[in-house]
């Protein structure tokens, strides 16, 4: 019995319906990278938290040198290193040797850089006195408490995708945890008795499991985090048991085992948990979607074909922006998961199957290729060529490293020639940053 046939938008709607935005949680800074901030970060402490020196040098009272001509010699009371917790005081007519970031002693309002003195930079005992060869201006090289940020100031706004710089800012204003929309936890399942762990010797009939690494990279680039990668053979019981032992997940993605063969393990293991159908596209015709038990809970499951190019195409066309919705990188609204496209122009010919939308991995054409195709200089749109001479064949995983784009060829088009216009999905630019309409 043949699977029902769906259009690309119909299947995308099924995947999109499963993509529910994850609720906000309180998370330590260490686990917030890539998460979306759920509420503004306001400063709990000022920055800097105390008045300190901006340079290595000597802290002094400016009144003690005002009106004098260089050189000026002052006694040195001692050292104030960064991290010093003992309150210090600078008495009139004296100086403290001070390091960058160290708290200014009470009474001092100016720092003389070490380069403007007779003291040599580097490790040495504090001198008994210092001679100043270049007199500073009042307040030189002093960073005052709260001059950058005052308590209550917003330093990171809600909706930001948190990177190292946002997390550093949050830490600097007194936060050790933030309220965030977490990255979706994804369990990857690669199936097939023929799969062997990458790097292992291959027995007759085996192939390396490349889909696990492909999906791991795609999931993480799209804003998810891989909770587990399960590799199973063709036993439905083995697959079901692996899912039952898996950690909690927000999404399960399977690769392989959903076509019309005799050993389609995902189809047999999931049974009524998922619906399977064909989509009029090449590659990646077989698709599935549903919900399934995983670990101690339940999660949406998206079932992709097993050939690597089909996995690559299907992820970009259906899954990437659904993950972004779950992560709050995109707003939840109808049609938001459709990939964005840009215009391009073919710099080489290729064929496309009649009656199916072709999703063909493409790379930017080099200047020689564009010139040989007779394209104008500069071209009217991005010139592209297939990453492989065999076009969109679904097993050509070794060609994917050059695939920065996926060309979208309509079902009625059977041949693309040099100079023909087409739309492409940009695989190198994940347009899923939070905030704004896309």
Automatic annotation (TrEMBL):
Listed GO MF terms: metal ion binding; molybdopterin molybdotransferase activity
Pfam family, one: MoeA_N
MoaB/Mog domain residues: 187-325
Family designation: Belongs to the MoeA family.
InterPro entries, per the entry: MoaB/Mog-like_dom_sf, MoaB/Mog_dom, MoeA-like, MoeA_C_domain_IV_sf, MoeA_linker/N, MoeA_linker/N_sf
Keyword annotations: Magnesium, Metal-binding, Molybdenum, Molybdenum cofactor biosynthesis, Transferase
Species of provenance: Schaalia georgiae
Source superkingdom: Bacteria
Functional description taken from the UniProt entry: Catalyzes the insertion of molybdate into adenylated molybdopterin with the concomitant release of AMP.
Pathway: Cofactor biosynthesis; molybdopterin biosynthesis
EC number: 2.10.1.1
Protein known as: Molybdopterin molybdenumtransferase
SUPFAM superfamilies named among the record's database cross-references: MoeA C-terminal domain-like, MoeA N-terminal region -like, Molybdenum cofactor biosynthesis proteins
Cofactor(s) listed: Mg(2+)
